[in-house]
Write a structure and sequence with these properties.
313 residues; Rossmann fold; N-(1-d-carboxylethyl)-l-norvaline Dehydrogenase, domain 2; 10 strands
């Protein structure tokens, strides 16, 4: 299977490396120092699930060089989605499937608008991984799973083929018959985790252990779930309770990737996470005051650390 990955960061780098290491024809679209390192030293993944080195590594900044692929994976930050969809065009042939393993809930609609429903798959990645340095991915913990599926819920031959590739690569995976529901289930949890770890600058452990911060996290998740249901997503009535049980099972030091972006002074996915909930809440008439609070509290950092955040200002 020929797989093109747009975005060789924590998600694309980790799963792409495992697929490549298992013998799949994997191409990475990257830029700058990361691309140079991939070409010169290969792609190194450090993980409790087993280290991987892909060398030589098929990496380029020219999608036209890759040509049509069986699967095109989008694994960029949310603000780069439109650019990534456009950039993928030379790799999208008549039989290509395009799937996003990004955060948020917007990518499926953007892929479908660009390439049509028949070329669109939905996807969810559950993993904590980052670029530690150019050419090197650091995976935190052991959680690393992909969920993917057709928009109509069928387990199609191409979904089966991707599942077989994941099986060969040793990647935990699930072929979903309701991928929109799976995307929203992750979104409910991710919005709360990214919001609370970024707001408090603390990991999930102390947040879940304090009754007030735990209650705020519950409120955030409840609002996101209400918005999803208003948009026609069939979320379980006890979803928040299930997600709380999941929260309590996670490693105490775990943080959302948005906190890392905040601490580095990088751009945040906030407008598509808590901010996205606020916007969709207004569209559907669902109040989202906790998400509005998170968005207002962090929005001055959304484009990176503001100049006035320097010491003495």
């Amino acid at each position: 299977m020929k797989i093109a990955i747009v975005g060789a960061g924590g998600v694309g780098g980790y799963f792409g490396a495992r697929l490549a290491n298992s013998g799949q024809d994997v191409w990475f679209i990257a830029r700058g120092a990361h691309l140079a390192a991939l070409r010169e030293r290969g792609l190194q993944v450090h993980s409790a699930n087993g280290d991987v080195l892909v060398k030589p590594c098929q990496a380029t900044d020219s999608p036209a060089r890759v040509g049509p692929a069986d699967i095109v994976v989008l694994a960029v930050k949310l603000w780069s989605t439109e650019e990534a969809v456009r950039e993928a065009a030379p790799m999208v042939g008549a039989d290509t499937a395009v799937v996003s393993f990004q955060n948020g809930v917007i990518a499926v609609d953007q892929i479908q608008a660009a390439y049509g429903r028949t070329r669109t798959l939905g996807g969810v990645a559950n993993i904590a991984a980052v670029i530690e340095q150019p050419g090197v991915i650091r995976h935190t913990g052991t959680m690393a799973q992909l969920t993917f599926g057709e928009l109509d819920g069928t387990i199609s031959p191409r979904v089966q083929a991707l599942a077989a590739a994941c099986e060969k690569a040793g990647i935990a995976h699930k072929a979903s018959d309701d991928i929109r529901k799976a995307i929203w289930e992750k979104y409910v949890f991710l919005v709360a985790a990214s919001s609370m770890t970024s707001l408090t600058r603390l990991p999930l452990g102390p947040i879940r252990e304090d009754p007030d911060t735990r209650a705020l996290m519950v409120q955030i998740m409840s609002e996101v779930a209400a918005v999803g249901r208003a948009k026609g997503v069939h979320l379980d009535a006890d979803l928040v309770d299930k997600l709380l049980a999941r929260l309590d099972s996670l490693p105490r030091p775990m943080v959302a990737s948005m906190l890392g972006d905040l601490e580095r002074g990088s751009r945040l996915e906030l407008p598509w996470l808590a901010g996205g909930v606020v916007a969709m809440g207004k569209e559907t008439g669902v109040p989202a005051p906790a998400n509005q609070f998170i968005y207002a509290a962090l929005k001055l950092y959304a484009d990176g650390r503001p100049a006035d955040a320097r010491a003495g200002k």
